[in-house]
């Protein structure tokens, strides 16, 4: 049986944004058939921490995924970045995924230790907290996606495919 991965993205939040790159990436990924996992999507989450967390946690409870990849847009970044942790007030939660091992397989992705202090970090914290209380070994990461363009799309898509495969492999081990 293939592991099931849950992938999430956000809608836009500023007037100048025509789309959210995290959602654009999932839109590209969604119709593709892959042989290593079943993919479930929650796309275009509201840009509200509480609402987004409620939607995602409800989906986690409904489908019981084996791994989670939350995605958000980072307009100022030039490559995919995987967030190592999420903060809320004085609390910090870290992903259970070995990011050094993951990054070693990627050509143009880095680790970030600053999830942005916005809805992305809020959702990531809530999902990590939920996973910690229910099933701590559940592999869960947050990937920030830069603005997509013809020059970076191929490498971003290739790295994201490797990320999905890595998380699915970790999901089968947990």
From TrEMBL:
Listed SUPFAM superfamilies: Pyrrolidone carboxyl peptidase (pyroglutamate aminopeptidase)
Superkingdom of origin organism: Bacteria
GO term, biological process aspect, one: proteolysis
Entry keywords, A to Z: Hydrolase, Protease, Thiol protease
Keyword Protease recorded: yes
Keyword flag GTP-binding: no
UniProt GO molecular function: cysteine-type peptidase activity
A Pfam family it matches: Peptidase_C15
Coiled coil: none
Family, as annotated: Belongs to the peptidase C15 family.
Protein name: Peptidase C15 pyroglutamyl peptidase I
Organism encoding this protein: Stanieria cyanosphaera (strain ATCC 29371 / PCC 7437)
């Amino acid at each position: 049986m293939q592991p099931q991965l849950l992938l999430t993205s956000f809608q836009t939040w500023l007037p100048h944004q025509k789309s959210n790159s995290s959602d654009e990436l999932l839109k590209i990924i969604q119709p593709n058939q892959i042989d290593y996992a079943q993919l479930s999507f929650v796309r275009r989450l509201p840009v509200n921490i509480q609402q987004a967390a409620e939607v995602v946690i409800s989906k986690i409870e409904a489908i019981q995924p084996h791994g989670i990849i939350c995605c958000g847009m980072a307009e100022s970044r030039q490559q995919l970045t995987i967030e190592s942790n999420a903060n809320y007030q004085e609390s910090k939660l870290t992903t259970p995924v070995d990011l050094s091992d993951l990054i070693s397989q990627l050509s143009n992705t880095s680790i970030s230790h600053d999830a942005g202090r916005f809805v992305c970090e809020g959702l990531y914290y809530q999902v990590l907290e939920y996973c910690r209380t229910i099933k701590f070994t559940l592999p869960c990461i947050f990937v920030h996606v830069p603005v997509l363009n013809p020059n970076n799309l191929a490498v971003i898509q290739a790295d994201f495919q490797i990320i999905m495969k890595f998380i699915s492999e970790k999901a089968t081990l947990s």
